[in-house]
Amino acid sequence: MKIVIDRGRCTGIGICESVAPDHFEVDEDGTLQLISLGISEDERPLLEEAVRSCPARALRLENRLENRMENRVETQGAGQ
């Protein structure tokens, strides 16, 4: 599982930081930073809450295995 930030949507409000401070930090200039790339399955509910709390809908969680499979399908289909 990984966290994906849509930087074009992020407004730097920092609600995600208040929900999951071990994973998110908003810099002085309002730029959201991931401060923890490792995500355990136990942390999933907390991160899902951070995603839901984002008013700009700038966050999402992706399953790495699903993402790799989608990329493989797109790559295989590209040459046809």
From TrEMBL:
Ferredoxins are iron-sulfur proteins that transfer electrons in a wide variety of metabolic reactions. GO terms for molecular function: 3 iron, 4 sulfur cluster binding; electron transfer activity; iron ion binding. Residues 1-29 form the 4Fe-4S ferredoxin-type domain. Pfam families: Fer4_15. Keywords: 3Fe-4S, Electron transport, Iron, Iron-sulfur, Metal-binding, Transport. The keyword Metal-binding applies. It comes from Acrocarpospora macrocephala. Its cofactor is [3Fe-4S] cluster. This is Ferredoxin. InterPro entries: 3Fe4S_ferredoxin, 4Fe4S_Fe-S-bd, Fe-S_cluster_ET. SUPFAM superfamilies: 4Fe-4S ferredoxins.
